[in-house]
Amino acid sequence: MLDGNSRSITSNQHGIHDDLERTVKKHLSTEFKKPFAPFSLTTFKELKVRVELYLQVNPSHQIILDSCCGVGESTFHLAKQNPNCLVIGIDKSEHRIDKHIHHQQAELLNIEMIRGDLNDLWRLIADANWPIAHHYILYPNPWPKSKHLGRRWHGAPVFSSIPKLSKQLTVRSNWDIYIKEFQQALSITGVESKVTEYSAEQAMTPFERKYWASGQKSTQLTASF
Ligand SMILES: C[S@@+](CC[C@H](N)C(=O)[O-])C[C@H]1O[C@@H](n2cnc3c(N)ncnc32)[C@H](O)[C@@H]1O
Fold first, then answer.
1. How far is the C-alpha of 218 from the C-alpha of 92, rounded, in Å?
2. Is residue 102 included in any domain, yes or no?
3. Is the distance from CB of 151 to CB of 181 less than 8 angstroms?
4. Relative to the CA of 34, which of 44, 101, 105, 167 has its CA 20 to 30 Å away?
């Protein structure tokens, strides 16, 4: 599945969604009150213990969030590059989290892999006020059909939690419209960001590697506010 034959995104949407501004403003003006799943509350409770202990032992360290981390390849790289941070990879897919072999092999002490739903965990983590130095969202599911705007992170009710998590944000996608929409949605919250084409010598995630091997380009948003 992850070789160089990934088809590029096709969509019936050819620019920023006409409903983006209305959708984002609607979500920003109403509190997202969906009850937390019991599983999310348990996961968060366990994570909180781990984070508090880590910060107690390493009071000058910070946290890096790697949301939608898949098998955690990016989580592993970030943990190696940032020994002064606890890097938390979160993905809802048990199958992907279980495949997190790099971490098991490397036995890094500053990495935590969590299976969980970000619709709940982002809200709980934002309220916890942890020192999150950087938040990465690498290749979120693009949901390119126009009718699926509400499934993209910037079209979802939980979007308002994202600027509360960290003041450094990196989002990458192989669908430039996703990133341009994310930029506009952030701007509605008062956060300005930069959008550029992204390339590097080595891919940081399996999806990135797959897209590049099939000739697709990545677009990256960075915000520092
Ligand atoms: C296209 S994959 C990218 C994975 C990885 N970042 C990479 O680049 O290889 C998108 C990931 O987002 C995860 N995801 C989608 N919705 C989620 C949610 N509500 N909570 C947590 N993870 C979610 C999926 O399980 C999937 O692993």
1. 23
2. yes
3. no
4. 167
Give distance in angstroms: CA of 91 to centre of ligand 1: 6
9 inside domain: no
- Report the pocket of ligand 1 as residue ranges, CB < 6 Å: 68-70, 90-93, 96, 117-119, 138-141, 205-208
Give CA–CA dist 141/172, Å, rounded: 11
In the reported structure, the alpha carbon of residue 57 is separated from the centroid of ligand 1 by a whole-number distance in angstroms of 31
CATH code of residue 88: 3.40.50.150
Q: Please choose from 9, 68, 75, 212 the residue to mutate so as to test ligand 1's pocket, defined by most ligand atoms within 8 A of CB.
A: 68
- β-strands 132-138, 168-173 pairing: parallel
pLDDT in tens, 74-96: 999 999 999 999 999 999 998 77
Domains in the chain: how many in total?
1
Domain that holds residue 151: 20-224
Write the pLDDT tens digit of every residue in 196-216.
999 999 999 999 999 999 999
> Which pTM does this prediction carry?
0.96
